[in-house]
Design goal:
Blueprint lengths: L1 H28 L7 H8 L3 H13 L3 E2 L8 E2 L1 H10 L1 H18 L2 E8 L2 E8 L14 E3 L4 H9 L4 H5 L15 H14 L2 E4 L6 E10 L2 E10 L2 H35 L9
């Protein structure tokens, strides 16, 4: 009996550790720039000493980096590695497509996927400006508050929004959509025009445009993020290119899938039919 009680206590303790660790990882994913131990403790509602112990263990495994550029703790390199592995086909295929987009619009460009009810940066390339946007692989934001997230939602099956969100949505800035009805109405517009937009909706001073593509590897979004007033100056030209880019991605992803299938069968790419 004592052994059973001890085992149950150990199991409960193990579950608690996992739960607390997951809470820390979620907090860091929402703050790609990093958080101090005190800020993490406040965010997850744990004692600072507990957070420090868990962060130390996570750092050993490479899941967090406790020496971020601003002295805070942020997600570590192992997270990016796991992320790339889970979407390996799209990462391999999409890098060339992402570079094409970056070269054309000269603004930070990213491939975005979804995790639960959040958009997540799968791959990103930074444009070189004196005032530039730097995103982190693995960084997340609510799907309804980013252009990439809204683009993804526009391609998901009917009823997805109702299953993911309540009637009220959390506001992150004065510009965030705050009702599910408003989100559904905007998604209908995105389905008609093919372009999603977010202006200061998750972070003040950042605006973005995105298109979503349905590939054999899944549904992904290509997102372009602008700092400040550059958005207004180049919005129309960027929208036009992104629509053409989306079509090209769909065509090339289909050809890529055919080539991969031919390779698995030991055929040359010219023998696909």
């Amino acid at each position: 009996m004592e052994k059973d009680e001890t085992s149950q206590a150990d199991a409960r303790g193990g579950v608690q550790v996992v739960s607390r660790t997951a809470a820390i990882m979620r907090a860091l994913s929402a703050h790609p720039g990093g958080l101090s131990l005190t800020a993490i403790a406040t965010e997850v509602g744990l004692p600072r000493s507990t957070v420090q112990r868990l962060v130390t263990a996570l750092e050993i495994e490479g899941l967090v980096d406790a020496k971020g550029p601003n002295g805070g703790t942020r997600l570590g390199p192992t997270v990016s590695s796991l992320l790339a592995t889970a979407h390996a086909d799209m990462v391999v295929f999409g890098r060339h497509q992402l570079k094409t987009l970056l070269d054309a619009v000269n603004e930070t460009s990213s491939i975005v996927t979804s995790v639960n009810a959040k958009s997540m940066v799968l791959e990103t390339m930074t444009a070189e400006h004196s005032l530039r946007v730097v995103l982190s692989q693995g960084s997340q934001a609510p799907l309804y508050a980013t252009a990439g997230g809204k683009a993804l939602l526009s391609l998901y099956e009917p009823g997805t929004v109702e299953r993911l969100f309540g009637t009220r949505l959390e506001a992150f800035t004065p510009h965030t959509l705050t009702t599910r009805a408003a989100l559904i109405a905007e998604l209908e517009q995105i389905q008609n025009c093919g372009i999603a937009m977010a202006r200061n909706e998750f972070t003040q001073g950042l605006s973005s445009l995105a298109t979503a593509v349905h590939t054999g590897m899944g549904i992904y979004a290509f997102e372009v993020t602008f700092a400040g007033a550059r958005f207004v100056a180049s919005m129309d030209e960027t929208r036009e290119f992104m629509l053409a880019h989306r079509y090209q991605v769909m065509v090339e992803s289909e050809a890529c899938q055919q080539d991969w299938q031919a390779g698995w069968l030991g055929l040359s790419s010219g023998a696909r039919r």
